[in-house]
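User: I've been trying to design a sequence by hand for this structure and keep getting stuck. Would you show me what you'd pick, starting by listing the structure so we're on the same page?

Assistant: Good idea, let's start from the same input. This is the structure you sent:
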């Protein structure tokens, strides 16, 4: 009787392990955040780049649209998108929030001094932990929000001319 119980538990364990492997192998490994569009960001808690204060959702409420851009000085594609961010800065109904991702503060300062600072608000995520809360795992990535902090669009990779035009269209600035 005891042998049958042991055989049963071994059999169940094998089935369980095979089931876990089967589920893991059938899960998509493609990074996809399309399901985030339409959701609301309820809590923002980012460290201010300049004074180590905290940036919250209250700091973003006075704008019709917000573009949160995750970037770093060591990121080559971030340099490529930078001219489009500077152009977006000229549009008055959007606030640009830059989140410096896993970077040295001196390098980030030099990057912005050399290329220009397009950001109205500048935050730092030196460990990359806060960015994960936004569904960001690599950079550059940008999230376009409305005034209610609803995600309208996510841009994975550098903002291109096409993305810039799409953002302007969403904002009604064509």
């Amino acid at each position: 009787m005891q042998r049958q119980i042991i055989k049963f538990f071994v059999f169940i364990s094998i089935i369980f392990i095979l089931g876990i492997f089967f589920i893991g192998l059938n899960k998509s490994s493609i990074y996809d955040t399309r399901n985030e569009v339409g959701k609301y960001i309820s809590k923002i808690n980012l460290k201010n780049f300049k004074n180590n204060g905290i940036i919250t959702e209250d700091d973003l409420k006075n704008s019709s649209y917000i573009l949160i851009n995750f970037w770093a000085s060591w990121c080559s594609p971030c340099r490529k998108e930078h001219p489009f961010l500077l152009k977006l800065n000229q549009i008055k109904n959007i606030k640009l929030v830059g989140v410096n991702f896993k970077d040295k503060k001196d390098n980030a300062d030099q990057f912005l001094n050399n290329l220009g600072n397009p950001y109205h608000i500048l935050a730092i995520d030196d460990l990359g932990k806060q960015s994960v809360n936004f569904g960001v795992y690599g950079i550059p990535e940008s999230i376009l929000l409305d005034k209610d902090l609803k995600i309208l669009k996510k841009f994975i990779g550098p903002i291109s001319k096409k993305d810039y035009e799409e953002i302007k269209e969403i904002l009604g600035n064509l």
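That's my pick for every position. To get oriented when you compare it with your attempt: The helical segments are 2-26, 76-89, 105-115, 129-132, 161-171. The chain has a mean pLDDT of 86.
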